[in-house]
Design brief:
The chain is an alpha/beta fold and about 220 residues long. It has helices at about 20-25, 35-50, 85-90, 130-140, 160-165, 170-180, and strands spanning about 55-60, 75-80, 95-100, 115-120, 140-150, 185-190, 205-210.
Length: about 220
């Protein structure tokens, strides 16, 4: 698997302690949440505010929970991930696609297929993030949004080196750079959803929108 990463960051920044194939690492279903209840609630509140009602949604690096508010109205939601069992247990997904973004960042979807996309607490595992973000831009409809939620939890052997070198604020700037290096995005911003109690996991969001005007 190539780990070459286009953009301003050296290739070694995207190396990991465990460079074995990701499907081997994720072959065992992990039916556990990776952030605490308060952080999950914060993510759900955010999704309820920003995702389009009755849209077609893409959950990248999906698992057994997508953290949308219960009963959130959608036309369809597609999960793309590595573990079929986990995604089969996700009650909010309407369909699932097994796909390794680190081996092949090309998304198996047509242009302008989705109204919004998101990745939750998994961006730290992308070894080719600029290529993935460029593909997300392609599959979004004009005006569609992409939301990256991150915290400070990770599998350290699979998180890329640059992520582990940074603090939470620097990670936000890193994700901003993925957007900037991957194409024409607008309304790019970084926000903290705050801690719900001193011991809760932090929740941060980096988001942007595909322009509605061609060539903008």
């Amino acid at each position: 698997m190539s780990t070459a990463q286009p953009g301003p960051h050296p290739e070694q920044f995207f190396r990991r302690q465990d460079e074995s194939a990701d499907p081997l690492f994720f072959v065992q279903p992990r039916l556990v949440v990776h952030i605490d209840d308060a952080a999950i609630a914060a993510a759900g509140d955010y999704f309820g505010e920003v995702l389009p009602r009755n849209g077609v949604l893409l959950d990248l690096m999906s698992s057994w929970r997508s953290h949308l508010p219960e009963g959130f109205p959608k036309r369809a939601m597609v999960g793309l991930g590595l573990n079929a069992v986990e995604m089969a247990e996700n009650p909010q997904l309407d369909s699932a696609v097994i796909h390794d973004l680190n081996a092949n960042p090309s998304l198996p979807f047509a242009d302008a297929s989705f109204d919004s996309a998101f990745v939750t607490v998994s961006v730290q595992y992308m070894v080719r993030p600029v290529e993935v973000f460029r593909e997300v831009l392609r599959v979004l409809r004009p005006g569609g949004s992409f939301h990256v939620i991150y915290s400070n939890r990770m599998f350290p052997t699979k998180a890329v080196a640059i992520w582990q070198m940074m603090d939470d604020q620097q990670r936000g700037e890193l994700v901003r750079s993925y957007f900037k290096d991957s194409g024409r995005w607008e309304d790019l911003g970084v926000a903290s959803r705050g801690r719900h109690g001193s011991s809760s996991d932090p929740v941060y969001v980096v988001s942007a929108r595909k322009p509605t005007t061609i060539g903008k």
